Amino acid sequence: MLLTTILLWSLNLSVTKYVLDQGLEPLSYASVRYGLAGAIFIVIALVAERTLRIERRHAATLLLATALIWLNQVCFVYALDATTASTIGLLIGTIPIFAALFGVALGRETLTSRFWLAAVISAIGVSFVAVGSAGHVSGGYGGILLGLVTAATWAAYSVAVTPLMQTYSPSHVSAIVISGAWVLIALVGLPVTREQDWNVGWEVWVLLVLATLGPLVLTNILWFRVLHRIGPARATLAANLQPFVAAVLAVILLSETLALAQIAGGALIAVGIVVARRRTAPAQAA
Fold first, then answer.
1. Buried b (16+ CB within 10 A) or exposed e, 15-43
2. Helical pair 2-21 and 59-82, crossing angle rounded to 10 deg
3. What is the rounded average pLDDT of the residues 158-179?
4. Residue 76 and residue 96: Cα distance in Å, rounded?
5. DSSP, residue by residue, 136-190
6. 169: left (phi > 0), else alpha (psi -120 to 50), else beta?
7. What digits encode the pLDDT tens for the residues 215-230?
């Protein structure tokens, strides 16, 4: 289940990049994809739990999570539109570092010198990726910045929804958050969607559906089952393979190229993640 999740997450980058290159505008693609995913999660949650009710005390957190997913998806599609799937795949490796920083900001973790060393190593790796890709990629450093915001917003979302998982199922949270994010995406992308030429070929539509059912729906189910089966420590350690797998798939499927600087940067990001495995100590009670 874990390897399937990693493969689908990694494949999503190449599939999305290909679909955007075939004529779908970023917000048009996101609107259709999230609309379909939101409908699927609503059905799953209603069938399994018979309700989508939330407690009033969790409303603010869910609104924040919805806004973060909206920003994450907008940055994700525009990042892939501006730069290569392999570059974004490498930048995704910074998610654990961002997650630790947000955990500290919320008082859930305290940082050690080991973490700061890992953060510096990862930052150097990101700069290598940027230098190696900006010179020959449309969008240049703008695409790199969007890729970093994509990683940061996903990390912030993960930290924000973690406490909710003690009360609600993943499908319940996804039904609310993804549906809400779709509303925001659809509203922002309405002018583009109206002008979109939807005659893009059946292959693109098949890939869009697969990108929804696999990386959005199926992985949500598999990932939380994996966390229950083998624990978060082992699962997240293996999930660190995703940036490397995503970059390799982009090279194979899209004939993208990786500069030496990008490869070195990806290696440094990976080293930073490994160093940060013991990055924090539990926060002491007052």
1. bbbbbbeeebbbbbbbbbbbbbbbebbbe
2. 60
3. 87
4. 17
5. TSTTHHHHHHHHHHHHHHHHHHHHHHGGGGGTS-HHHHHHHHHHHHHHHHHHHTH
6. beta
7. 888 988 887 777 667 6
Cα(29)–Cα(16) distance, integer angstroms: 9
- Taking alpha carbons only, the member of 141, 34, 129 closest to residue 86 is 129
Residue 196: other Cβ atoms inside 10 A: 18
Q: Which residue has the tokens 């995406």?
A: 185
Per-residue pLDDT tens over the stretch 35-47:
999 999 999 999 9
DSSP annotation of 50? S
Q: Are 250 and 13 in contact (CB under 8 A)?
A: yes
Give the global pTM: 0.81
d(CA 28, CA 197): 10
